[in-house]
Structures are given as structure tokens and as C-alpha cells.
Specification:
112 residues; alpha/beta; TIM Barrel; three-stranded parallel beta sheet; two-stranded antiparallel sheet; 5 strands; globular
Length: 112
């Protein structure tokens, strides 16, 4: 990972209303460590919707490196993106699946 900070800029139709968000991945990892220390149970980190707009791949890799036992996503497409980018933890798809998506999941080691 090149940087420990992700900066996202969101443009707006109003020139003075542009916003940004910076996510410090090191702090994110520290926070997950604190949570893991308190709950002492496998941790599911929900990263659906591009990690709520913060970067699906970067946040997911940091979550796994910080001890996440499982990741939650909104769709099979997001799950596929994680698998293609080296995520080796179980992935929970938090939406209904159609027949083609079920076949894809089963063919790629999915469990239910």
C-alpha cells in the first residue's frame, strides 16, 4: 500500500460546496485492533458501497491485515472485486442473489 491516507474529493454543482474525506488507514487499523481486543469474537467488517465511498480495496486489505475474520459487501460484483484483488477471507453478500449469482458463488468456493 502506497499511502496510509486515502483522500476522496466529491465535486458539487455549487463551487464552494465541494467536499473531501481523508481516511487514515493506520488509525483505522488501530481502531480495529481496539475493537478486536474488546469483543474477542471474529470480526465482520462491512465494506459495501466501495467501503462507504472510502475505497473498497484499500480499506478491505487493511481490515484483513488488522484481523477482520470476514468482510461484508452489497453485491456479488463487490465480492468478486475483493477476490480478484487477493482478499482471502470469507465474504458475506448482504443482499439477495439471483440464480446466476448463486451459480457463480458456488463455482468460486462460496458457502451458504
Amino acid at each position: 500500500m502506497r499511502s496510509t491516507t486515502i483522500r476522496l474529493e466529491v465535486s458539487s454543482s455549487e463551487p464552494r460546496r465541494a467536499t473531501w474525506c481523508e481516511v487514515n488507514l493506520t488509525q483505522f487499523a488501530d481502531n480495529l485492533g481496539v475493537i478486536n481486543g474488546h469483543v474477542r469474537r471474529p470480526l465482520l467488517v462491512v465494506v459495501k458501497g466501495n467501503a462507504y465511498g472510502h475505497g473498497l480495496i484499500e480499506v478491505s486489505h487493511m481490515a484483513v491485515a488488522s484481523g477482520a475474520a470476514m468482510l461484508g459487501v452489497a453485491s456479488v460484483d463487490e465480492a468478486s472485486t475483493l477476490i480478484q484483488n487477493g482478499i482471502d477471507r470469507p465474504i458475506l453478500v448482504l443482499s439477495g442473489l439471483d440464480a446466476d449469482e448463486i451459480e457463480y458463488c458456488v463455482a468460486n468456493g462460496g458457502r451458504y
